[in-house]
Structure formats: C-alpha cells, structure tokens
Amino acid sequence: MGEMVADLNRAGKRHAVITGVVEGGDPQVAAEIEDWCRAAQVRRRLRYTNLAQIGRPYPGMMDLYIDETNLYNRMGLYTKQFDWEKMWAIADDVTDENAIAAKVADIHDTFDIIGDYDEASIREMARYVIAFEQWVKDEELGFVASHYDGFAQGKAGVLDSMLIPAFSMLIKQGIACAVEGDIKVAMGMSIMKTISGACQLSEFYTFDFNDDVVLIGHSGSGDADFSTARKASMEIVPVFHGKTGGGFLTRFYPKAGPITYLGITQDADGNFKFVVSEGVIEDGPTLGNGDTTFRTRFSIGAREWNNRWCECGPTHHFAAAQGSWTDTILKVAKILDVPVEVVCR
Of 27, 161, 260, 284, which alpha carbon lies 20 to 30 A from 222's? Predict the structure, then answer.
C-alpha cells in the first residue's frame, strides 16, 4: 500500500487508505467504503449536471458574488444563465389535467397549508412545478440559484408568488435551489442533500446569550425531508424577505438532535474552501417571524463558535443537514481537492 501511495503522490493523484478485510464480515471497512462512495457521488453530480443562475445575486451581497468560469475550472460545475422573462412563460404549455391533479396531490402531501387560500392557486402552482421539473430535465440541472428584484406585476407576479414552494418541490427531488442568487450555497445544499438525504439553506439570525445557543434558519425554499419534527407548512404572506410582492411562504421544522453545517467560501485567489461545524438542535423558543428557525447549541459555546466561524471567512449562507456528517464532508473535500476548516464537533 505504501508503494502505491508513493506512486500516486508522484503522479499528483489523491488517495485514501482503508485497512481491513474487503469481503467477509468487516463492518468497519464496509462502512468506510460506503462513506467514500457517498462522497464520490458529489463529484459525479458536479461533473454531470449543470447549474442554472436566474437573474443575478442579491445586490450588495458581495460575499455571494462568484466567477462562473473559475467555478467550472476548479469545481467542474458548468453554469447556464437564464433571464426571468423566459421563466415567466415556463408553464404556458402545461395543460395535462391528470398530471396537474397528481401534482396538486403531491403538493398537499408535502405541505400543511395554513390559513385561507384558493385551491385554484395550488393548481397554478402545480403547473409551474411540472414546468420546472421538465426544465430541469431538458437543461440537465442539479443546482439552481435565483434572485428576482423586480416589481412582481403581471405574469412576473404570478410566478414570484409561488416560486418558493415550487423550488421547495424541486429540492425534495434532489435539485438544490438557493435564494438570493447564491451559487456557493447551492453547491453546499447539493453536497448535504447527496450525502445525508436532506438539506436546508441557513444563516445565523441571532443569539440567546442567556441560554448560550444560536438561532439559525432562513426564509424561502427548503427541503421537506429536513422537516422531521412535523410536516412542512405553507401559508400566504403579504411580503417576502428581500423582495417586492407576496405569496406562498414555506416553513420547515427539524427535530432536536445532531446537526451539521457546511459553508463554502473563497480566498483572494479564487480558491474554494469548506467551513464545517457540528452542533445540536434543541427544543425551545424561536423567532416569531414565520421563517424556518431552530436553536443550535455548540460544544464551544455560542460566542466562541461565532468567533471561530466568522474568522474562517464564510459567506453568510450555509447548508444544514441533521446528523453528524463532518467525516463524510472531509472525504468530499479530499475528492474535490478543497481545504476544510472544522470549527467544532
């Protein structure tokens, strides 16, 4: 094995050593190989699917800005650019009533719809979900990063009002959909969805210093598979975070237990870096702003966690997955040849 590693080093190839019995009752080896295969799926996803950017990043959030050519050269992920004018008409040809009815049922199965609403709006939402599903197939997409900052009138308003649940339905199917045009967190979400089965776009909101916990969450699209404490909810709100206009907003409810956070950032030379932290979601009061929010306790305390996390220079968005996934993320990083900073476990 040492000879092979010496040769691989001279060839500039990455490697990992696993010692044990390949066949015949060695569960440690089987688990390690399975974890490497899980991590390798991320490379395959980056290599064989594309990223769609609709619009442009949230203006002024320079931590989200990215060079798409550099992204392709370093991570192998190709970006396709789309204008919102094209997306407004995406559902015009969706008329199959059986398919629409099936998707309406799927939406009701995914979300607990809160408050008064018109069932006709759910039917319209189903048409857009069907259209987006076909668009994803046609463009071979695995990632979507979007932001709309217009006046949400006419057809633009119709799409904007139901975009959050429509993208949530795509996330449920494994397509990472990130708000505010954040391509880096779309990658993070895809990594977490691939290795854990569920993901949630997040940022830290505030601190409960008395209880020494951090309140973490986000508005907008999310993953129904992340909502393990209860069924994901959807309700009509008069205004969206950071946008003109209102419509259907989704919310997700993770159960108490281990949680892993993954941030993806870049240095001054454009090199990518992973920032990872583990904590524990605890039951307790959260913010009453209608967003997905959960309380996280870290082994090093809220203040020290914030110091160390921010010193790593992450973007303000990061991806969350329930469970302990640091070891798998380290394997993903080795495959992608990306450095990792682990804040705490």
Answer: 284
Total residue length of the chain: 345
d(CA 284, CA 266): 35
Residue from 181, 197, 341 nearest 263 by CA? 341
The top-scoring range by mean pLDDT among 20-34, 123-137, 235-249 is 123-137
**C-alpha distances out from residue 137 to 52, 82, 195, 213, 229, Å:** 12, 15, 22, 41, 32
The whole-number pLDDT of residue 241 equals: 67
236-262 per-position pLDDT tens digit: 887 776 566 778 889 999 999 999 999
Inter-axis angle of helices 155-172 and 119-139, to 10 degrees?
Answer: 70
Each residue's pLDDT tens digit, 140-182 = 999 999 998 888 888 888 888 889 999 999 999 999 999 999 9
Strand locations in the chain (E): 50-55, 78-82, 111-114, 141-147, 176-178, 200-208, 213-218, 232-237, 247-251, 257-266, 272-282, 292-297, 318-322, 340-344
**HSE-CB for 73 with a 13 A CA cutoff:** 7
- Closest by Cα among 169, 195, 217 to 318: 217
Work out the angle at residue 71's Cα, subtended by the Cα atoms of residues 68 and 73, and round it to the nearest 5 degrees.
Answer: 115
Please classify residue 229 by burial: count the beta carbons closer than 10 Å to its beta carbon, then call 0-12 exposed, 13-18 middle and 19+ buried: middle
- Closest C-alpha to 212, from 283, 122, 291, 295: 295
Query: In the chain, what is the straight-line distance between the N-terminal and C-terminal CA atoms, in Å?
Result: 31
Give the per-residue pLDDT at 192: 98
> Which two three-digit tokens encode residue 65?
């800005």
Neighbours of 231 (CB within 10 A): 13
Strand order in the sheet with 141-147: 78-82, 50-55, 141-147, 176-178
Phi, psi of 222 (to 5 degrees): -155, -175
Higher local confidence (pLDDT), 241 or 5? 5
CA dist., res. 182 & res. 203, Å (int): 12
Which phi and psi (to 5°) does residue 130 adopt?
Answer: -60, -45
